[in-house]
């Protein structure tokens, strides 16, 4: 995890002030208050993330993302995550996310079915086994606790 955090340091995304989106500043290196207008982060600034082929049920989904902040101990991560259409499975961490673009159906094994789209806030529990059917490329802002 530390090596991954080091790779992410110093990359080109820019934090946006909530009061003035015209002025941008570099990403904070330490926990600090900041805002990012998630829909405006270009796809080119998202990094490819490996998707285990065993997780792919159908289609050819591609996952990208950007870590915006990670706690020094690696137990909390905040960032942007995106997936193209397809069907994938996952075992979740403790996560809160807000969908900013796209649509998906998330089936939680032994639980309900979540229909998510722009503006949806979702909480997933650590250990939830999920199947994601991504209808439109989905982008979310997230906070994960390990």
From TrEMBL:
Q: Which SUPFAM superfamilies match?
A: RmlC-like cupins
Region entry Disordered: which residue ranges? 1-28
Compositional bias per record (Low complexity), positions renumbered to this chain = 1-15
Which intervals hold domain (S)-ureidoglycine aminohydrolase cupin? 71-142
Gene3D superfamilies on file = Jelly Rolls
Instruction: Please list the coiled coil stretches.
Output: none
**InterPro entries of this UniProt entry?**
RmlC-like_jellyroll, RmlC_Cupin_sf, UGlyAH_Cupin_dom
UniProt-recorded name of the protein: (S)-ureidoglycine aminohydrolase cupin domain-containing protein
